[in-house]
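Hi support team,

I've been running sequence recovery on a batch of backbones for a student project. Most finish fine, but this one hangs at about 90% for roughly twenty minutes before it completes. I'm not sure whether the input is malformed or the queue is just slow. I've pasted the structure tokens below so you can try to reproduce it. Let me know if you need the job ID as well.

Thanks,
M.K.
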């Protein structure tokens, strides 16, 4: 369930299938329903003075008779409020703006690692020095019978070593045996280096890869990306109660507090923040964005948390509504699961 602001007014109305389900349940039980906004738009978390905020605080103070949304069960919450039978099991996940393939101006340097480039540079310097020494002192090159100056020797040696590396021709020819050995060795080395480089570069161009900003909690913390966690959620409580040596504790520095749900969704879709919350809520957001834009600008990280969390309605401690709502809840959701199973088996059951 979610709430939606009425256009032009400062009021909100509840939306979603859960609204219809609750009205059916309480209608059958003979109750009228009145929807109340959660205190501070929070599910509720425990404060240092042992009081609770949000919906849980309202239940404890008797301001509401039941939650109009589903809450995660936890030992601390179960000690102050009652829960209905679990409706389903939830898990916590992370979504963020999906990266796109962009032009990489440094892509020509990617086929080799930095260490390989360094070794190649050192080899180039050594080849140049050997070529210069043999050319200067053994008459290593020939084109004419004239002698070369020191500056000309430097230029000819650089032309041969760099030109060979780049597969470019040179007008000077090796003459001495020592020079032929140096040039021949450099020819073979540059041929191997160039062939591997072209092969790797072609593979990178044919099979481009997307590098996700993060795919687990450790990478999220290293990325330093702002992270939105619903205020008063059980996950938020876990993060702020985490030990100092845990990853959840490190995540505290990245938490973004935003009570306006519409604004938070916009921040998530535009890539300004990461969303870390219920996987069902995140899946709904992804489907909603796709229905409106026909695109999938979001991706979900593969790492999940608290995959066995029970999700239920909540009531004040000792409320008589708990025992009344439980059979109704079981009936509705058992019927949904039964129809889903019969549909998968190719049979249709109609209750009289």
């Amino acid at each position: 369930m979610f709430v939606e602001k009425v256009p032009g007014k400062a009021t909100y109305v509840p939306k979603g299938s859960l609204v219809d389900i609750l009205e059916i349940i309480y209608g059958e039980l003979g109750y009228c329903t009145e929807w109340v906004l959660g205190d501070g738009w929070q599910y509720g978390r425990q404060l240092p003075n042992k009081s609770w905020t949000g919906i849980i605080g309202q239940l404890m103070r008797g301001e509401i008779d039941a939650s109009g949304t589903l809450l995660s069960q936890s030992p601390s919450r179960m000690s102050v409020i009652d829960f209905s039978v679990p409706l389903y099991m939830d898990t916590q996940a992370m979504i963020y703006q999906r990266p796109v393939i962009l032009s990489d101006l440094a892509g020509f340097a990617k086929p080799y690692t930095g260490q390989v480039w360094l070794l190649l540079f050192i080899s180039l310097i050594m080849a140049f020095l050997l070529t210069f020494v043999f050319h200067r002192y053994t008459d290593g090159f020939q084109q004419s019978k004239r002698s070369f100056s020191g500056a000309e020797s430097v230029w000819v040696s650089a032309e041969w070593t760099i030109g060979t590396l780049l597969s470019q021709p040179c007008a000077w020819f090796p003459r001495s045996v020592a020079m032929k050995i140096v040039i021949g060795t450099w020819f073979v080395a540059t041929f191997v280096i160039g062939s591997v480089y072209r092969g790797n570069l072609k593979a990178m161009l044919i099979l481009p890869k997307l590098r996700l900003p993060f795919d687990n909690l450790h990478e999220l913390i290293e990325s330093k990306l702002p992270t939105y966690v619903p205020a008063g959620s059980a996950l938020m409580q876990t993060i702020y109660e985490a030990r100092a040596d845990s990853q959840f504790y490190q995540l505290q520095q990245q938490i973004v507090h935003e009570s306006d749900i519409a604004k938070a969704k916009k921040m998530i879709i535009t890539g300004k923040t990461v969303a870390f919350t219920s996987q069902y809520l995140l899946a709904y957001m992804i489907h909603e964005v796709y229905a409106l834009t026909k695109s999938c600008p979001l991706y979900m990280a593969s790492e999940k948390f608290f995959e066995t969390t029970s999700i239920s309605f909540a009531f004040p401690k000792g409320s008589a509504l708990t025992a009344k709502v439980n059979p109704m809840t079981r009936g509705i959701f058992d019927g949904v699961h039964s129809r889903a199973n019969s549909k998968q088996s190719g049979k249709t059951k109609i209750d009289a």
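--
Follow-up from support: It reproduced on our side and the slowdown came from queue contention, not your input. Residues 177-206 form the longest helix (30 residues). No action needed from you.
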